[in-house]
Write a structure and sequence with these properties.
- It is a multi-pass membrane protein.
- InterPro entries: HAMP_dom, HssS/ArlS-like.
- The chain has about 325 residues and is α+β, with helices and mostly antiparallel strands.
- It contains 7 helices and 12 strands.
- Helix content is about 45%, strand content about 25%.
- Helix 6 (about 220-270) packs parallel to helix 7 (about 285-325).
């Protein structure tokens, strides 16, 4: 109400009233508006013709700026909501800035336009705080300007590039920001402004029609998975080596007693019943060796008994022969 009334006085009042209204409006903007946000470099009020009639920066008063985007769009009622300009350099304030403007209406007519000039470095500071120093994470803000996407913040990997870097809307490098400007929220794997594949989370900011993208290089995101794959490969190789070594040791531990048992059975088959079969193992091979040795002992006893019986029969037979000879 205060701003509207003073603009009306400036537009229609006499010279004395105009001067008082300008002083009052300048003081109001400086004391009550500009201090609300430290990123505001200046606040201008222009009449319906685009002439700055009040400002927190006296050097801007009296300038005619009807062609500037912030004034032109509001004067023509292109937007029903506050108009946000594209990033630009303001030589009068010596800053890279973004202008947010809104019309001042009275009885359905636009009687003036109020413009807040914002220092873009404030946005870069905010995104830089959310970017961090480690890794490839980066937070960027962008807006649509015609057929292009304009980045509103300093790009981490293009520090030397001018503020407000623009790339075509249909460029592959603009996919994540394009989604941020046309969709609500989501994630995507796509090239960024460097042409490097990134994993990006995006969100649309409808209040100002901006896009917010937080991205990390794809290689960095999937590095733990690749490391896990390498570890799994190494572990698999080590496991295979261990299995082979264990198999070889196991085969040797089995083949040696089997060869010993085979040699002993061959001697046993050849009639050598004195060959002891001793394999000190508690497994099946040891049990088998023990069974063979028990069989050897029993076989030796059996043969010994047979031999003793044979000798007994020979002695008996000789006695019978001698007895028969006496009777003859």
């Amino acid at each position: 109400m205060f701003i509207r009334n003073n603009i009306e006085i400036i537009n229609r009042g006499n010279i004395l009233n105009k001067k008082e209204a300008v002083i009052a409006l300048n003081d109001h903007l400086l004391r009550n508006k500009k201090i609300l946000d430290p990123s505001i470099t200046a606040i201008d009020v222009a009449n319906q013709h685009g002439k700055v009639v009040a400002s927190t920066n006296e050097m801007l008063i009296g300038r005619n700026v009807p062609e500037q985007e912030a004034f032109a769009k509001n004067r023509e009622k292109i937007y029903d909501e506050p108009c946000i300009s594209t990033p630009h350099f303001n030589p009068h304030l010596n800053t890279r800035e973004l202008d947010i403007s809104a019309p001042v209406e009275y009885k359905g007519q636009i009687i003036g336009i109020i413009v807040n000039h914002y220092d873009l470095s404030a946005l870069s500071e905010i995104t830089r705080e959310n970017t961090g120093q480690d890794g490839s994470r980066e937070t960027v803000l962008g807006m649509k300007s015609g057929d292009n996407i304009v980045f509103l913040t300093t790009l981490r990997y293009a520090d030397s590039a001018p503020l407000g870097v623009a790339i075509p809307m249909d460029s592959p490098e603009a996919e994540s920001m394009q989604l941020a400007l046309t969709a609500e929220a989501g994630t995507v794997i796509a090239p960024d402004y460097r042409g490097v594949d990134v994993v990006a989370a995006y969100r649309h900011i409808p209040m100002v029609d901006w896009g917010l993208v937080v991205k990390v290089d794809k290689d960095e995101v999937f590095a733990p998975l690749r490391l896990l794959g390498i570890i799994a490969l190494i572990a698999g190789f080590i496991s295979a080596v261990v299995v082979v070594c264990v198999s070889v040791v196991f085969a040797i531990s089995i083949s040696r007693p089997i060869r010993k048992l085979t040699h002993a059975t061959e001697r046993l088959a050849g009639g050598d019943l004195k060959c002891e079969i001793k394999i000190p193992r508690s497994d099946e091979i040891g049990i088998l060796a023990g069974s063979f040795d028990t069989m050897r002992i029993r076989l030796a006893k059996l043969l010994k008994n047979i031999e003793k019986g044979r000798k007994d029969w020979e002695t008996t037979f000789d006695s019978i022969k001698d007895l028969i000879a006496l009777y003859d």
